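Reminder to self: tokens first, then the designed residues, so the page reads top to bottom the way the pipeline ran.
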């Protein structure tokens, strides 16, 4: 009685039943997609999930270059082949070390993709479809011949000098053996027409496919639409129809013609990461927290305008960057993080405004703020600093057309790769980092050239977030790489981030220095009365007549400003600061603009005459209405702008002559989820707990006693 051949799914179930709880835990951790709720109830359900196409593709994306090549070799050999065939094909002992093969096979077994069962090789369901052309070889001869008629099989056999058979299964067996025999194939090639060598070389070594009506060569229609070489090969089974108007060389034919000296190279030597040892640097300060605070404050006053097609355009990014004294790339990153964290959302007029979640974030301590930004960064599908379309053109920030999923796996792979090195290991060559990642995950990143721009952008973002410091993974980055607990990340960030500073040092040169991250209240006061010049471990602001006038325009008085500045000053305010504020207040309001359409008035006739004669104000078309009153041909807002640009300090008045305070209240948008923000997946069960339940399962395997 013939032995029943065990199917790949049954073999996979048998493998899983042999695993203990620790091995199952490692498998479920490596392939977390199979633990999604509702979790598998038994080993059979787990095997079904492991064998579906999505899970297989996800697992294959974790393979390195030599593991990919080994998977192709196993696909060529097929399920159930003796392990000796694998060792013979790879040239184990001569061209490949046995220990290296064991290591590669063990990696595939840990992912339940391939394993040995005694002296037999087993591959998981779906591995036979892993590659369309494994090792640049076509389908098996049995698969290609299955659709041929007995008459066509008889024609091939006659041309090869094989005696006739009575039934189709016998024809298939005999022809499969003949087309796998190097001696019989070479004997047939002795009568091949001249010039066939080049065609044969291409089919055997480079591409087994040909486009043309190969099927007609087996219908005795001479060589309609085919070259003599292709017709000759097809009539002898060297080429077989694989579809309409297409043919392929069978896998066994190509392997036989490649010869016994052919051994696939597994490229087992990985690229080397270029590093050097340094003293680990602490995360002294992460400026992204300060930048996010300032951007949210700015958006509350002046919302970011979105394009009609969606996203924030380059011109708007540059406007925000100029207002915040930041670069365009920084603003891009801040907007993406704020959107991912739900801290900004579109308003009714299309502008992008902070939400109530932004207020909650601003109220948190710096450590919790940084941890929230890192968590948001890990969820963004795209790489914010490198948002490009298919043509390589930069897209707008938050552009819906730039949505990709390269971000999360790339960040995870980068941090884990850096975490594999001891603390204090600095990467000195980013190109080597790109090569290592491309070698580790060839199916995920395709090539080092394509990965390069995304990796460099991700590296820079990790530096902004304090995950990489001085080209080495920080303690914060190591925590992000090895722990999925947000609470642990927030706790470590709180220990690393310095406490916010609520005091500033005012110097006689009109600068204010803050030695550490300022509190939101201190930053708001200094931003109102001064212009920020630098952001680092110590940040500086500079007071000027224009910045003080800006504070006065927003409704502050000189006494109020000096009192508030004195409250936050480490030492008494220098006299130049007091002189500047008082002088700006003295000049502030000397001019009053009231809506006539409009009128400019002053108590100083000489000042009125000076303004009327100022050529820079010609656009206002000023006309004397009285000794101290001038009429303007422009609206009040335009008149105020041009007067201030000319160096004067006017204030706006209502029709009744009351001073109008130009204070703009911060705006807020409803806390809505942006369309581009990924929806969180349902929480999966812990791998260890599921593994223990499955390991204790006693359900029998289907089809077994």
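Designed residues (705 positions):
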């Amino acid at each position: 009685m013939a032995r029943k051949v065990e199917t790949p799914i049954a073999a996979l179930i048998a493998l899983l039943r042999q695993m203990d709880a620790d091995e199952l835990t490692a498998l479920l951790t490596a392939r977390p997609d199979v633990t999604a709720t509702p979790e598998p109830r038994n080993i059979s359900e787990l095997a079904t999930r492991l064998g579906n196409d999505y899970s297989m593709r996800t697992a294959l994306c974790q393979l390195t270059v030599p593991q990919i090549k080994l998977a192709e070799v196993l696909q060529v050999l097929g399920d159930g082949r003796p392990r000796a065939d694998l060792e013979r094909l790879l040239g184990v002992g001569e061209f490949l070390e046995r220990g290296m093969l064991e290591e590669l096979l063990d990696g595939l077994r840990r992912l339940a993709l391939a394993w040995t069962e005694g002296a037999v090789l087993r591959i998981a369901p779906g591995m036979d479809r892993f590659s369309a052309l494994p090792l640049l070889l076509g389908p098996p001869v049995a698969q290609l011949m299955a659709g041929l008629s007995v008459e066509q099989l008889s024609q091939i056999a006659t041309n090869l000098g094989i005696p006739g058979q009575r039934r189709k299964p016998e024809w298939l067996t005999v022809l499969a053996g003949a087309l796998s025999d190097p001696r019989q194939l070479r004997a047939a090639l002795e009568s091949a027409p001249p010039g066939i060598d080049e065609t044969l070389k291409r089919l055997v070594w480079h591409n087994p496919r040909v486009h043309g009506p190969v099927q007609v060569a087996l219908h005795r229609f001479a060589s309609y639409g085919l070259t003599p070489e292709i017709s000759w090969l097809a009539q002898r089974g060297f080429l077989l129809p694989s579809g309409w108007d297409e043919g392929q060389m069978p896998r066994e034919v190509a392997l036989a013609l490649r010869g016994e000296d052919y051994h696939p190279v597994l490229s087992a030597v990985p690229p080397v990461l270029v590093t050097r040892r340094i003293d680990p640097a602490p995360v002294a300060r992460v400026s992204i927290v300060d930048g996010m605070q300032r951007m949210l404050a700015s958006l509350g006053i002046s919302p970011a305008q979105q394009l009609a097609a969606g996203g924030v355009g380059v011109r708007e990014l540059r406007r925000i960057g100029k207002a915040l004294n930041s670069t365009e790339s920084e603003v891009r990153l801040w907007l993406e993080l704020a959107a991912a964290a739900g801290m900004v959302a579109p308003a009714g007029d299309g502008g992008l405004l902070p939400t109530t979640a932004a207020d909650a974030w601003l109220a948190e301590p710096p450590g919790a703020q940084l941890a929230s930004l890192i968590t948001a960064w890990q969820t963004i599908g795209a790489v914010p600093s490198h948002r490009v379309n298919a043509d390589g053109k930069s897209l707008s920030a938050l552009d819906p057309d730039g949505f990709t999923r390269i971000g999360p796996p790339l960040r995870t792979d980068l941090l884990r790769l850096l975490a594999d090195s001891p603390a204090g290991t600095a990467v000195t060559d980013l190109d080597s980092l790109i090569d290592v990642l491309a070698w580790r995950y060839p199916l995920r990143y395709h090539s080092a050239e394509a990965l390069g721009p995304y990796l460099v952008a991700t590296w820079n973002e990790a530096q902004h977030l304090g995950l990489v410091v001085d080209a080495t993974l920080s303690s914060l980055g190591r925590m992000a790489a090895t722990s999925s607990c947000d609470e642990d990340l927030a706790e470590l960030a709180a220990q690393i981030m310095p406490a916010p500073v609520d005091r500033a040092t005012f110097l006689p040169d009109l600068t204010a220095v803050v030695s550490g991250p300022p509190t939101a209240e201190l930053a708001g006061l200094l931003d109102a009365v001064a212009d920020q010049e630098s952001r680092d471990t110590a940040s500086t602001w500079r007071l000027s007549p224009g910045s003080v006038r800006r504070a006065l325009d927003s409704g502050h008085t000189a006494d109020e400003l000096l009192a508030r500045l004195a409250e936050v000053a480490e030492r008494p305010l220098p006299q130049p600061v007091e002189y500047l504020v008082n002088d700006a207040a003295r000049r502030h309001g000397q001019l009053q603009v009231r809506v006539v359409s409009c009128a400019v008035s002053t108590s100083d006739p000489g000042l009125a005459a000076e303004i009327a004669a100022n050529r820079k104000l010609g656009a206002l078309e000023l006309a004397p209405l009285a000794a101290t009153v001038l009429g303007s041909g422009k609206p009040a807002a335009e008149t105020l702008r041009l007067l201030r640009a000319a160096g004067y300090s006017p204030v706006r008045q209502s029709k009744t002559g009351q001073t109008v305070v130009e204070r703009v209240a911060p705006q807020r948008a409803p806390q809505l989820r942006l369309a581009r923000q990924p929806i969180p997946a349902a929480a999966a069960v812990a791998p260890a707990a599921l593994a223990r339940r499955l390991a204790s399962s006693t359900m029998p395997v289907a089809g077994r006693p």
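Residues 448-464 form the longest helix (17 residues).
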